[in-house]
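REVIEWER CHECKLIST
Item 1: Sequence provided? yes
Item 2: Single chain? yes
Item 3: Sequence as submitted:
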Amino acid sequence: MSTPTVALTQGTGFRHEALLYDGDEAFLGAAADFVRDGTAADEPALVMVSPDKIARLQERLDAGDSVYFADMRQVGSNPARIIPAWRDFAAAHDGRRLRGIGEPIWPERAGAELVECQRHESLLNLAFAEAEAFWLLCPYDTAALPPEVVDEARRSHPFVVTGTRRVPSADYHGLEVVTVPFDDPLPAPPADAGGLPFGPGQLADVRTFISRRATAAGLDREHIADLVAAVNELATNSLLYGGAHGSVHAWPEPDGFVCEVRDDGRISDPLIGRRPPEPHQHGGRGLWMANQLCDLVRIRSGETGTTVRLHMSLD
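Item 4: Structure as written out by the authors:
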């Protein structure tokens, strides 16, 4: 599936900026100016931030029909769902200059969730590399976020905004880093994580294994059903494309439950699981489904094989 393109005679490409702001008032001023400028230029805008920021921003704007709002806490609860949301917005306004504000990282994001959000921010540069007129502003609250998170924003965004100053980021790591996917290892599972090898004809055993361990961990029926469906899809992929065998591991965490599927296959597409599969497409459906069903999906792949880790919250 090709990247949706905002086709214009005089395009400006994909402009991806990190807005470094200090506190909510600074955010509101910069965001309101950005949206107003877009409205004046007849450029539709999608704003994906927290509900309280949406409410306060709406108070400052006479947004009209060309400005849309979405709760990033819902859309981006799994950060792999954010790029599809931007794609849908681009596809719905094909042929027009577009603006967006997206804040996927806030102080409560931590651990694995933060790492995958940072991966998402880098992947945006690849996902919209061919867009002709899409200007995306990603706010970072320097008063609330750790300095290392702000430093990473400078590496994942080609441009940095502070106050009214917009400059190229001297620390931007470029597309080369993004196009070599999945090379940072995941932490090892706990020593007592249960495991089950599987091969042809053993998908029912995999489903039973996951269901029993998730039940023991306290997941509710709906989350268990979603998790079992996601693991079944991934295990099916392992049988078809990952050497016809694999293994599944599962363990509880303080606030959730984790499943991991490993096989001997290798994934080379950095955006896999972030594009809806085409009707004729072979492969990739399992990871798309996993991202729709699970709270977090982590993919690592290299010469030794592929690991996909699925997280489900107990909330």
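Item 5: Key structural point noted by reviewer: Residues 6 and 94 are 5 Å apart (CA to CA).
Item 6: Recommendation: ____
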